[in-house]
Every structure is written in structure tokens, then in C-alpha cells.
From TrEMBL:
GO molecular-function terms, A-Z: coniferyl-alcohol glucosyltransferase activity
Transmembrane segments: none
Protein name: Glycosyltransferase
PANTHER family xref list: UDP-GLYCOSYLTRANSFERASE 72E1
Gene3D superfamilies according to UniProt: Glycogen Phosphorylase B (3.40.50.2000)
Assigned protein family: Belongs to the UDP-glycosyltransferase family.
Annotated InterPro entries: UDP_glucos_trans, UDP_glycos_trans_CS
Keywords on record: Glycosyltransferase, Transferase
EC number: 2.4.1.-
PROSITE patterns in alphabetical order: UDPGT
């Protein structure tokens, strides 16, 4: 009987691409499929040269005991790439090179029934033909907003002339059923014809819409217009072969220590601070800033006179190296860029954490009252899930769209304004921090973000929209198994 049950469950294979910002949401989706939707789940984690760091962080940050996680042997693709390739190119090549391992593992699996579905993110599209070959359903998981998903879906079938006009005029991109996207907030190098990445992104967009389904880490009530546009045939749904499912907000929550757990380091320090009195400052899993900018952030935090926790990394002038850092070797380097005497002067009011912090635990902590974030989508969702208002400080990729959404549409963040010379000065840093932590404006944002928190919880509960979406997706997989 039990054997039959095991056999009748659909088996989903998930492939997580390199970078913690890609791995974490895939693992969370895997957990959800396993614990709430009775799937067998296998997650392949693809890493690069910093595989040790990834495994260490994964071990520290996820309760993985019940998940079947397979680490793809690390692949170093550096000798096949030009020097300083764009990050996306490096990730895609790593994914391509991992396909033979993936295929042989999927076909030789004898732990679970043959997999009925493959779920990849935007960097794992090269695995889709393999899945079709093996008779599996194909799903693409956008670990981003419905709004950004809508840009990609729209782009897949849009006349090149429209994109050219958009790039030339710098007018907002009008996407049917959605808020127009400001030119500077779109992925300029990807969406502008003539730019190196244009054709490659177009190819990806076409592969995405041809999948059997699209999953998005968002929820209907957060983005009603974009979700509706993507699902409706008359609007954007006509571009997609399969159904579009909003399944979020899927974010990591703090691990419960079996013994109640004695806290150490930053979490112990947070225990000693008053409720909602600390601003957490972090720019994602790979985000780095220039040495000058680090200096201004430090002095701005000091000027704000607010308690803080700040995750620091050694400076980097572009986005190409950040996603693949090595935690151990970066610690001393990161600290050496702080202003002279900063740690000593601020020891009563803040904690500097080099390289990597337990973000889920920090945002969930009652002492945390604000988050200066680069607006990576996972960070945005983690902030919302914990009812924490934000200072939106986007760096690259789709982060400017996310920043627009949280500040101008949802009203749960203050956005940092660009300043001449590309460095945000200490005065502005202090001002935005105080607007969220001290001013009346912050009180309003806090109230709104707590409402969104409840809305996200509702989406995931038994009768919620996101739970329902994954039930529908499971039905497709069940039918496919039979
Ligand atoms: N993260 C963390 N500690 C850190 C930095 C990041 O746990 O010091 C986690 C964070 O909680 C989030 C992910 O890494 O889940 C970063 O994803 P996000 O989409 O915010 O940004 P990305 O790294 O993709 O730019």
C-alpha cells in the first residue's frame, strides 16, 4: 500500500543555477512541493569554483534533511570564456556543461519513480530539450516578480521595431495589462536591439514561453494586474504555451534550533536591542560596491544615529565577480575597507558582518525595523514576509523594477536617489535610514508592509491562491504520470 503511494506521487526534478540568489528560491520551491503537495523532489545544485562556499551556506541555511539534494560536481569554465565575461554568460555556460551529469543522474535514478517534471530557472533553459526527450513536462521558475515575468513574455513575441523605438526614444515600455516600465528600469542591454545580449535574451524568452508551464515567486494579490495579464489569453497569456502559476511568496524562514539554541554573534546582539530599532543593510548574495561608496555608507550609518547590522564585502566596480565569492578569504579584505576607527566608534550602535549574514534570521528578528536592500527579489519577499519596511537601493538586473514597485506602487520603501558621480553621499544615506526608522513616513510604511505580510501568508494557506496554483500544477503532473 505504502509502496503504491510512493510510486503514485509525481517526481519533480529541480535544477538550481549557480549563485545563492538562484539556489535559495529553488530550494524553497522544492521544500514546498515536498511538504505541501506530496511530490518526490530531487534538486540538482549547480555550482562553480566556490562550490565549498555554496555547500557550507546551504548546510547552514536550510533544513535539508528531507530533501534529495544532488550537488553537481563543480565545473570550472574559466578557460572556455573570454576574460571578464558577463555574469549571465558564465552562469549559462556552467549550466550547459553540467547537462551530461544531469542527464545520466536523471536516467539512472532508482530512488523515486521516473521524474514527470523538470523545473529550471532562467539560466537552466538548456536542460529543457533533455526533459522533453525523456518525456517530462517542462516548467520555468521565475524567482522574480510577475511584472518582470510579463516583460520577458511580452518581449518573446514583440516586433523588433517596437523594441528599437523603445530603446531610441527611451520611452517607457508598454506591456499590455501591466504598469509601463521606465526605460532606465528595464534590462537595457538585454532589451535593446543591437546590444550584445539582445539576441541571447530573445532566445531565452522564446524558450520560456514554449515551456509547459511558468511558475513565479509572487502572489496574485501582490501583483493582480500582471498576474491577470499573464494568465489571460487575450492579454499576455496568448504568448505562453502552458499555464502561468503565481506560487509565492516562497522564502526561507529562520531555522528552529532543536535545543532552543543559544544564539551567538549578530543574533545574540539583536536579542539585546529594543523592538524594531535596528536597520539591516545588505546588498544580496553577491552585491558589492565601490570603496568610495562603502565609505559613504559607513559614515551615513554613523550620522543616522540608528542601530544597524551591515553586511560588508570587498569592493568591486562591476557585478561580475560578486556572485562567486569565497566567504573565508573575503573576511579580512572586507573589513579593511571600513573607515579608520569605524568599528570601535560604532560598537555600541551596530554590528558589521563580513561577507555573509544569516539574513532570514535577522529579518525575522523582532529587533529589526528596516532593511536597506539592493532589491533582489528574494530580499524584497523576505522583507515583506517579515513585515519590514525598506530603503530601496537597486544595483543591477531587474532590481530597479523591484525598487519602483516597492517604493512607488506598494508604498513600503523609500528609494535612494542617484547622485552625481555615481556615489550616494553619507547625508542621503543618513536621511533615508531616518525616514524609514524614525519619521512619520516610516510608520505608514510599516503599517502597509504588515498588511502585505498577511496577504502573503493568506496566499500560501490551504485555500490561498498560491497553494491553489501548485495544486493545479500537481494535477498536470499527475495526469502526465498516468
Ligand atoms: N543572503 C543571506 N545572507 C547574506 C546575503 C544574502 O542569507 O549575507 C540570502 C538572502 O536571504 C536571499 C539571497 O541570499 O535569500 C539573495 O537573493 P536576492 O534575490 O535578494 O539577491 P541576489 O543575491 O540574487 O542579488
Amino acid at each position: 500500500m505504502e509502496r503504491d503511494m510512493v510510486a503514485s506521487k509525481p517526481h519533480a526534478v529541480l535544477v538550481a543555477s549557480p549563485g545563492m540568489g538562484h539556489i535559495i528560491p529553488m530550494v524553497e520551491l522544492g521544500k514546498r512541493l515536498l511538504t505541501h503537495h506530496s511530490f518526490h523532489v530531487t534538486i540538482f545544485v549547480v555550482t562553480t569554483d566556490s562550490a565549498t562556499t555554496t555547500s557550507q551556506i546551504l548546510r547552514q541555511t536550510s533544513n535539508l534533511s528531507s530533501l534529495n539534494i544532488v550537488h553537481v560536481p563543480p565545473i570550472d569554465v574559466s578557460n572556455k570564456l573570454p576574460s571578464n565575461p558577463p555574469l549571465a554568460v558564465r552562469i549559462k555556460l556552467t549550466m550547459l556543461e553540467s547537462l551530461p551529469f544531469l542527464r545520466s543522474s536523471v536516467t539512472s535514478n532508482n530512488k523515486f519513480p521516473p521524474p514527470s517534471a523538470l523545473i529550471v530557472d532562467i539560466f537552466g533553459l538548456q536542460a529543457l530539450p533533455m526533459a522533453r526527450d525523456l518525456g517530462m513536462l517542462t516548467y520555468v521558475y521565475f524567482a522574480t516578480s510577475a511584472w518582470f515575468s510579463a516583460v520577458t513574455v511580452y518581449f518573446s513575441d514583440t516586433d523588433k521595431k517596437i523594441m528599437e523605438t523603445h530603446a531610441e526614444s527611451r520611452e517607457p515600455l508598454s506591456i499590455p495589462g501591466c504598469t509601463p516600465v521606465r526605460f532606465g528600469d528595464t534590462l537595457e542591454p538585454f532589451l535593446s536591439p543591437g546590444e550584445a545580449m539582445y539576441e541571447s535574451y530573445l532566445g531565452s524568452a522564446k524558450q520560456i514561453v514554449a515551456a509547459d508551464g511558468i511558475l513565479m515567486n509572487t502572489w496574485q494579490d501582490l501583483e493582480p494586474a500582471a498576474t491577470k495579464a499573464l494568465r489571460e489569453n487575450g492579454v499576455l497569456g496568448r504568448f505562453t504555451k502552458g499555464e502561468v502559476y503565481a506560487v509565492g511568496p516562497l522564502v526561507r524562514s529562520a531555522e528552529k534550533k532543536p535545543d532552543g539554541g543559544k544564539k551567538v554573534g549578530v543574533l545574540q546582539w539583536l536579542d539585546e536591542q529594543p523592538a524594531e530599532s535596528v536597520i539591516y543593510v545588505s546588498f544580496g548574495s553577491g552585491g558589492t560596491m565601490s570603496a568610495n561608496q562603502m565609505m559613504e555608507v559607513a559614515l551615513g550609518l554613523e550620522l543616522s544615529q540608528q542601530r544597524f547590522v551591515w553586511v560588508v564585502r570587498p569592493p568591486c566596480e562591476d557585478d561580475s565577480s560578486g556572485a562567486f565569492f569565497d566567504v573565508a578569504s573575503g573576511v579580512d579584505a572586507a573589513m579593511s575597507y571600513l573607515p579608520e576607527g569605524f568599528v570601535k566608534r560604532t560598537e555600541e550602535m551596530g554590528v558589521v558582518v563580513p561577507m555573509w549574514a544569516p539574513q532570514a534570521e535577522i529579518l525575522q528578528h523582532p529587533a529589526t525595523g528596516g532593511f536597506v536592500t539592493h532589491c533582489g527579489w528574494n530580499s524584497v519577499l523576505e522583507s515583506v514576509r517579515n513585515g519590514v519596511p525598506m530603503v530601496a537601493w537597486p544595483l543591477y538586473a531587474e532590481q530597479k523594477m523591484n525598487a519602483f514597485m516597492v517604493s512607488e506602487e506598494l508604498g513600503v520603501a523609500v528609494r535612494v536617489a542617484e547622485e552625481g558621480g555615481g556615489v550616494v553621499g553619507r547625508k542621503q544615506v543618513a536621511e533615508v535610514v531616518r525616514r524609514v526608522m524614525v519619521d512619520e513616513e516610516g510608520v505608514g510604511m510599516r503599517k502597509k508592509v504588515k498588511e502585505l505580510k498577511l496577504s502573503g501568508e493568506k496566499a500560501l494557506c490551504m485555500f490561498g491562491s498560491s497553494h491553489h496554483s501548485l495544486c493545479e500544477m500537481r494535477k498536470e503532473c499527475e495526469v502526465h504520470v498516468q
